Every structure is written in structure tokens, then in C-alpha cells.
Automatic annotation (TrEMBL):
Species the sequence originates in: Colwellia marinimaniae
Transmembrane parts of this sequence: none
Sorted UniProt keywords: ATP-binding, Helicase, Hydrolase, Nucleotide-binding
Domain DEAD-box RNA helicase Q intervals: 10-38
InterPro entries: DbpA/CsdA_RNA-bd_dom (IPR005580), DEAD/DEAH_box_helicase_dom (IPR011545), DEAD/DEAH_RhlB (IPR044742), DEAD_box_RNA_helicase (IPR050079), Helicase_ATP-bd (IPR014001), Helicase_C-like (IPR001650), Nucleotide-bd_a/b_plait_sf (IPR012677), P-loop_NTPase (IPR027417)
A GO term, aspect molecular function: RNA helicase activity
Pfam families: DbpA (PF03880), DEAD (PF00270), Helicase_C (PF00271)
Name under which the protein is recorded: ATP-dependent RNA helicase
Top-rank EC class of the record's enzyme: hydrolase
Residue ranges annotated as motif Q motif: 10-38
Domain Helicase ATP-binding: 41-212
């Protein structure tokens, strides 16, 4: 399949997706497609069979999930789609991601059918009906044979991590399940590797499939991950300080799992002299917007955030992501660390974990198909290092688009007649009634004087250093 090299930067809004799906994607902060999404979704939405060869963490779940949800007719309360996964953990993760993607669709029912859980209650759930089934081969085959799972209305079938299912000896079960589905269904097969067995199974169950392969250079390989083991929560905060002082970078995002912890970590780092901001759901919208703006324009070097608050966080060059705790699920972990190392640049991700989180590390090892070995923490000697500080400061101007203020006017007012240098001016953001400009910290006083005395559009606007 020939693909335009710029497709990986396409926005989801460019696809022929249902409006409620696009709106929800935007609220989740999913603006641009990953390479696997950009290459498969246009074909999937045309109804074609697709084979996707890509590593876990490439965004394939959202790719087939969006195709599945776009095709779904919620008014018809019957099983229309089914995703088969090799393990219960992966099935749970896929179902969770599908529910997240489906938030804009009302009355949708997604049911998981996996081994290791009682059979009886699953029969009851199936009797109540569902739109989408996510399950493991053994349990799905059992339901199909007993007649409790009816697949005559199925129009989309997904085999996720097909290579692992074959490695685990599920070929016969897959044959049995697929043999009971309609021939005119759409079939999607995702696999991290492509052994001969996959070739033969695809030939027997797919119709003229489009083959999409994502090269290693297009996946998460630009991100270097390191894991550090800690004891108590007090040790965790000490470890965080050591890492921040050892690896001094321009911009770091620290992810916490709760709002309370986000605030506590930010306050503790601030007390210790770091240039830090907190971003969580308890902040007023205006404060959230200003926090994001100040971090994006380099007026703060560290942002401590929850996953929800960081949705839509679009920072061009994020040097480091630190997971204060391992994320609650592996998809979130990959999404978090994917914020660094963008546009082909090298990214760095640190994760702290304790004995209590060892099970999460185990899930991550399966998910990333990698062995995780803890690294030694930096020596205590780094505590003597200076705290990293932001290079810029933000000025708020009480005039914006409605007052006809443009970025060029602000730049001119700052740099004209013995003003500051153009190289000392950073990002300029103009809103309806306000504008914000980042200037080098050393030039802040002169910049404020220039704006106080100078004129834009024939008038003087109030300007102040934005600190809170």
C-alpha cells in the first residue's frame, strides 16, 4: 500500500467519522493520528479487510476501535462486532479503550467474555444482549459451541495480537469461532510479527486484505525508558528530586494518578525551589488555561499533572516525562510517554514504582514486550545542584483580537526604540480580550516598561507579569 509520508500528521477530523466520535476524540486530547492509525483508518472506514503489522503501544486499539464504532448501528440491539484477544488482561484493556472512545454514543453495550471468570453470569449478560463482544478464544469458542453466543449479525471481526494467539495454541479455537460468522463480514487482523501461520490464516479468513506495516522508525523507538524502584512515598519524593536535579532539562511533565497527589508534589517541589506548576481538575478553567500557556511558552520548567487535566496538552518539545506512579493501565502509560520524543526527536521517560506496583510493571512488560530492569538512582551529591529554572516569563496584556491587537503589534512594541531584542521574545498568544507574550527573564523589566509607555493601535494597554 503506498502512503503519503505526511499521513502520520493527519488530524482525526479529516476522516469521515461520526461527529460524536470526533468530538469525543478531541475531549480526550487525541488530535493527531499515530502512523498505524493514519495508514489503516482510511481503509478501515471504506469497509476493507486490513492486516496491520505494528507493535503494541502503536495506537492500533484506537484504530480498529474507531472503525468498529463508526460502523455500529446502536438502534439495532444485537452483536455486530467482536474483538478476539490472546489474554484476559488485553481483552480488559481493549474493552476499556472502546468504552472510552464510545463515550459520545448513547446506550452502547460492550461485553467482555474471558476465561477465569464464572460462565453462568456471562450467559445472563448475553441473554440481555450487546453490541460489541471482546473476549479470549477459549471462552468465546465455549459460548459459540453451547449456542449462548449468536454471531449471525456480526459485520466486523478483529483478531488482535494474532501472532500471540497462534503461539498460545488457539488456531483450532479461532477456526471454530470464525467458521460461525457471516462470510460478508469485514475482518481486521493486527499482529506485532508476521510468521507463515499468520499468512495462511489471513488467506483463509480475509478477502483481498490491505497490508499495512509500520517501520520501527515510526513507532515509540525514539523514547528511552528508565524505571526506578522506591520504598515509601517519602522515598518517592526524594527519588523525584534526585532525577530532576540529575537530568536538568528545559521542560518536564510529571504524571500523578490523583488530583490531591498532583497538588502535594507540586507544592513540595515549589517549596524546594523548583520552577513548577500544577494542573488538575480542581482548578478553574481560566487557571488551567493560563497554567498550560505558561508551561508551553517555557515560563515554567516543570508541570505536575493528572491524566485528565493533561488531555489536549500539546507541547512542541517536551524533554522528559516522569511517571510518579505507574499509570493505572498500560495504554495510558504509552499515551503519557508518547508526549516526549515527538517529530522524530529523542524522548526520555522515567517511571517510579514500589513493590505494591510490581503487578503493574508485569502488565507493562507484557504490553511493551520488554523486560523491565530497575536502574540505580542518582547519587545524593546532585542535591547540591541548582534547581532548574524557566528561561522565560509571561506578560499578560489587557487587549486582544477585539481591540485589533495582533502578534506583530506586540513584537513591535517590545523591540522598537531601544527595546528588547527579538531573540528575547518567545511565544505570543492573542485571545479575544487578552494577549500573552513570553519574554526572556532578564528582559522582563524592560519589556514591561516598553509596554507601559508604548502604544499599540494608537493606545496604551495595561500589562503585568503573570505569576499565578
Amino acid at each position: 500500500m503506498s502512503t503519503n509520508p505526511t499521513t502520520s500528521s493527519l488530524a482525526f477530523s479529516s476522516l469521515s467519522l461520526k461527529e460524536e466520535l470526533v468530538k469525543n476524540l478531541s475531549s480526550l486530547g487525541y488530535e493527531k493520528m499515530t502512523p498505524i492509525q493514519a495508514k489503516t483508518l482510511p481503509e478501515l472506514l471504506k469497509g476493507k479487510d486490513v492486516i496491520g503489522e505494528a507493535k503494541t503501544g502503536s495506537g492500533k486499539t484506537a484504530a480498529f476501535g474507531l472503525a468498529l464504532l463508526n460502523k455500529l448501528d446502536v438502534k439495532k440491539f444485537r452483536i455486530q462486532s467482536m474483538v478476539i484477544c490472546p489474554t484476559r488482561e488485553l481483552a480488559d484493556q481493549v474493552a476499556k479503550e472502546l468504552r472510552k472512545l464510545a463515550r459520545g454514543i448513547h446506550n452502547i453495550k460492550i461485553l467482555t467474555l474471558c476465561g477465569g471468570t464464572p460462565f453462568g453470569p456471562q450467559i445472563g449478560s448475553l441473554e440481555h444482549g450487546a453490541h460489541v463482544i471482546v473476549g479470549t478464544p477459549g471462552r468465546l469458542e465455549e459460548h459459540v459451541i453451547k449456542g449462548t453466543l449468536q454471531l449471525e449479525h456480526l459485520n466486523l471481526l478483529v483478531l488482535d495480537e494474532a501472532d500471540r494467539m497462534l503461539e498460545m495454541g488457539f488456531q483450532a479455537a479461532l477456526d471454530n469461532i470464525v467458521g460461525r460468522t457471516p462470510l460478508d463480514r469485514q475482518t481486521l487482523l493486527f499482529s506485532a510479527t508476521f510468521p507463515d501461520q499468520i499468512q495462511s490464516i489471513s488467506e483463509s479468513i480475509m478477502t483481498d486484505p490491505v497490508m499495512v506495516k509500520i517501520a520501527a522508525s515510526e513507532d515509540q523507538s525514539t523514547i528511552s525508558q528508565m524505571f526506578f524502584k522506591v520504598g515509601s512515598d517519602e522515598d518517592r519524593l526524594d527519588a523525584l528530586r534526585l532525577l530532576l536535579l540529575d537530568k536538568q532539562v528545559e521542560s518536564t511533565v510529571i504524571f500523578c494518578n490523583t488530583k490531591k497527589e498532583t497538588q502535594q508534589v507540586a507544592e513540595s517541589l515549589h517549596f524546594d525551589g523548583f520552577s513548577v506548576l500544577a494542573l488538575h481538575g480542581d482548578l478553574e478553567q481560566r487557571d488551567r488555561d493560563q497554567t498550560l500557556l505558561r508551561f508551553a511558552n517555557k515560563s515554567a520548567s516543570i508541570l505536575v499533572a493528572t491524566d485528565v487535566a493533561a488531555r489536549g496538552l500539546d507541547i512542541d518539545s517536551l524533554d522528559l516525562v516522569i511517571n510518579y506512579h505507574i499509570a493505572r493501565d498500560s495504554e495510558v502509560h504509552v499515551h503519557r510517554i508518547g508526549r516526549t520524543g515527538r517529530a522524530g526527536s529523542k524522548g526520555l521517560a522515567y517511571s517510579l514504582f514500589s513493590d505494591k506496583e510490581s503487578y503493574k510493571v508485569g502488565l507493562l512488560e507484557d504490553y511493551l514486550d520488554a523486560v523491565i530492569t530497575p536502574e540505580p538512582l542518582p547519587s545524593l551529591a546532585v542535591l547540591a545542584n541548582e534547581r532548574p529554572q524557566a528561561k522565560m516569563a509571561t506578560i499578560q496584556i489587557d487587549g486582544g483580537k477585539k481591540q485589533k491587537v495582533r502578534p506583530g503589534d506586540i513584537l513591535g512594541a517590545l523591540t522598537g526604540d531601544n527595546g528588547i531584542k527579538g531573540s528575547q521574545v518567545g511565544k505570543i498568544s492573542v485571545h479575544d480580550n487578552k494577549a500573552y507574550v513570553a519574554v526572556a527573564k532578564g528582559a522582563l523589566k524592560l519589556a514591561l516598561r516598553k509596554l507601559a509607555k508604548g502604544k499599540m493601535k494608537g493606545r496604551t494597554f495595561n500589562a503585568r507579569h503573570l505569576t499565578v
